[in-house]
């Protein structure tokens, strides 16, 4: 099985290489790993031990960020290294000031694992949610370096729980402690005789609750909104945008803010064709009055979590594709949420639906009905906010456990 795994890693690299000729993310993935060990050696003190945080992408970074930042606040002398698998995490957070170094994770080969771990000398490794890499995990275990999974989530369909999944279960054996989000994950791991499991919940709740308390005010957004009620469509894809933009003409008293998931020029141009006259955030001038418009398109990264403070109702995109994006950032501000039909991987989406703090839709008619309902619903928003507040505390539990190693 190890031979197949190694072959799969090599094949993946070849596919990325071919894709890099016509796909920007693949190009960034490949170029970001060129001479990676020389880059690491120049940027950090390789004689120092580091706390190693690894994140698959930007979403996992935001999920585990509270643990990283609280650890640094409590132990300011500690050196921290952050690695990302995906360009969507690294390219946005490569200048993250709290870490002593931010890098792409070299592909999981035996030699790469040895080189990376020799350079960063982790005293502990903390992986968020998922990402299981055989060679990295085996070497951490061999060197007796504690490995934590935080905000972990497991499902019966994963290979770990199949009769033929022995190779994948061997990676679980390398984990010192699992901090998981739900009871199903606890039961699945305990079914494999893992006792080193804590039901801590999801550190994202701590992150989004903190964001509400430290949110940045955005003068250009405030000026655009004025006193009008605001409908925010966050992390949208083209199918989401077709639905949302169809609402606009029917609600002239509302303002609409659309923050697409992809902000490349081609997609922004496509979106602007759907809503002629929409403002582009990056083209607004702080010194000049804004042109009058009902719609603003957010064509940069990093604002959405702060924009939610101005909303009345929120639509979260992705539910007509692979799966919905982050609902908790909006819920933390006390906003009722609408999303598409593919939400089954997210417990918080199911919870919000059960609390009548969210509505799932699969058509234009359903979106219109959901929007009308939530305009009058005075309970949905407060229920969403209370749900987030009640679920905080995972970060403290992880940090308490870490005290024995730090």
Automatic annotation (TrEMBL):
Keywords: Cell membrane, Glycosyltransferase, Lipopolysaccharide biosynthesis, Membrane, Transferase, Transmembrane, Transmembrane helix. Pathway: Bacterial outer membrane biogenesis; LPS core biosynthesis. The chain crosses the membrane at residues 6-24. InterPro entries: Glycos_transf_N (IPR007507), Glycos_transf_N_sf (IPR038107), Kdotransferase (IPR039901). The active site is at residue 60. SUPFAM superfamilies: UDP-Glycosyltransferase/glycogen phosphorylase. Its EC number is 2.4.99.12. GO terms for cellular component: plasma membrane. Belongs to the glycosyltransferase group 1 family. This is 3-deoxy-D-manno-octulosonic acid transferase.
């Amino acid at each position: 099985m190890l031979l197949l795994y190694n072959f799969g890693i090599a094949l993946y690299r070849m596919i990325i290489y071919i894709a890099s000729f016509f796909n920007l993310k693949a190009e960034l993935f490949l170029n970001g790993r060129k001479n990676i060990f020389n880059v690491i050696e120049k940027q950090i003190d390789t004689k120092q031990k580091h706390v190693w945080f690894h994140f698959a992408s930007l979403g996992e970074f935001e999920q585990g960020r509270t643990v990283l930042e609280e650890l640094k606040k409590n132990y300011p002398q500690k050196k921290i290294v952050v690695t990302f698998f995906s360009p969507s995490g690294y390219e946005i957070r490569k200048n993250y000031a709290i870490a002593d170094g931010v890098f792409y994770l070299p592909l999981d080969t035996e030699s790469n694992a040895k080189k990376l771990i020799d350079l960063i000398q982790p005293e502990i490794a903390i992986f968020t949610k998922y990402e299981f890499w055989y060679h990295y995990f085996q070497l951490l275990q061999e060197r007796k370096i504690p490995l934590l999974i935080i905000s972990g989530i497991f499902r019966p369909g994963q290979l770990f729980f199949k009769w033929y999944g022995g190779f994948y279960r061997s990676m679980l054996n390398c984990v010192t402690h699992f901090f998981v989000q739900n009871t199903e994950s606890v039961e699945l791991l305990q079914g494999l005789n893992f006792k080193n499991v804590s039901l801590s919940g999801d550190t994202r709740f701590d992150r989004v609750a903190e964001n509400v308390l430290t949110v940045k005010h955005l003068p250009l957004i405030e000026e655009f909104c004025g006193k009008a009620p605001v409908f925010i469509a966050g992390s949208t894809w083209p199918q989401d945008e077709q639905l949302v933009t169809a609402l606009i003409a029917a609600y002239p008293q509302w303002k609409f803010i659309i923050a697409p998931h992809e902000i490349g020029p081609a997609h922004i141009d496509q979106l602007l064709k759907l809503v002629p006259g929409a403002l582009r955030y990056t083209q607004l001038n702080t010194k000049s009055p804004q042109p009058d418009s009902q719609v603003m398109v957010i064509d940069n990264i990093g604002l959405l979590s702060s924009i939610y403070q101005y909303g009345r109702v929120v639509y979260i995109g992705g539910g007509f594709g692979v799966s919905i994006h982050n609902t908790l950032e909006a819920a933390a501000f006390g906003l009722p949420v609408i999303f598409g039909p593919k939400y089954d991987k997210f417990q918080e989406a199911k919870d919000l639906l059960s609390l009548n703090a969210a509505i799932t839709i699969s058509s234009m008619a359903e979106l219109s009905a959901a929007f009308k309902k939530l305009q009058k619903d005075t309970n949905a928003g407060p229920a969403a906010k209370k749900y987030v507040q009640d679920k905080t505390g995972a970060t403290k539990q992880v940090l308490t456990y870490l005290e024995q190693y730090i």
